[in-house]
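Work Package 3 (structural annotation) set out to generate three-dimensional models for the target panel prioritized at the project kickoff. During this period the team completed the workflow that converts sequence records into discrete structure tokens, so that structures can be stored uniformly alongside our sequence database. As a representative example, we reproduce one entry of 393 residues exactly as it appears in the project archive.
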Amino acid sequence: MATKTLPSIRALREYLGFTVAGVSRFCRIEKARLTAIEGGSEPTFFELEELARVFGIDSDALSDEHIVLQASDAPSTLASLDEFRDIGEEVRVRILAAATAAKDVVALKKLLGKQTITLAGIRRKSTGLHDVRGKKPAEQGRELANRLRKKQKMGSEPIISCRDWFQEFYPDATLLYAELGRFGPAGLTFADDSRGATIVLNLNGKNEQPLVRRFSLAHELCHLLVDVDGKTPLAQLSGYLTDTGLEREQRANAFAVRLLCPESVLGSVHTDDEPAEAVRKLAPFGLPYAAVRLYLNKLRGLDLPAIPPQEVLSMRLQAHWLNAEEPLGIAGFPLEKVPPERRTHVAELASEAYSRGLISRDRFALVLGVTPLHEIERVLDFFGVPEPTDQAA
């Protein structure tokens, strides 16, 4: 789909599967007033901005006679996904907000003259990795991870921090964090020219555990490297409501296991190993216990207890993973009102743009997701960026 034209705000709301009550609550617009706007009443600037924020598009698009969605616009890439329609409205709003944050990262990079990655560039990143046709999904994931480890000369060493490793080997890609709810997706992957290559990790639910969070990052990386065809924008929610989605998830899970723990180490676990010994061999590689348990049961025939053996859960190892996979830039951010997806790359790039006089103070606040009444200069201090001169401001 190149573009989609919708005749009204109401049509856009229905296209995204939102109710009037839901949009009213998320936009802080009374239901009667929202119904009036949908009926043709002219929205105020504030109402337009709030509606655009919830729908995940630019406010200019809402003010046109017809709403034209490009193929890479968040509503276009997300609304057709079964996974997106199956989750609650609040989580959908948060997903759209994360998609908008990813778009702002690319826009700010372009404004600052920094390199951004295109769909073609994403495809080149996976050259030599993606062609595993004719194999089952789990076998594809296994082969892909083995090739990537070999390509990046990782040997049989553990990835000390998946967060740092990802940023080192894929510096053009973006890693964001968002609060997608306890039962929301573990991660999102976007790949298109307006959002570049972006992975969003959920800060809630199982991802609160550092080992699960690092596994989720490895899992989403598989989507980024493999599920991009070079032309069609990719929007992937970790889920498997369709057969295709199930295959993608199986492949990504198998990929994540082997990326974090090399095949040679996995192969060192034998069927006659004691549970504690089997887990001990894999513990330094930072796999979540649930993944270890599933892998050893399916491929090694080992039946591990539901609760991991205490002797392999050393406090020292737990402290290491907490530090290694901490979402940097989230805790300690100076303005609590700034949503998590805007506290890292968005806030840092916007700070530089404001410092250099490329955006106004009002625009800086808007990009942060707050009003100009907030002490947004504290964000400059957080990133060590000087305030703009009078001439630049």
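The longest helix spans residues 89-112.
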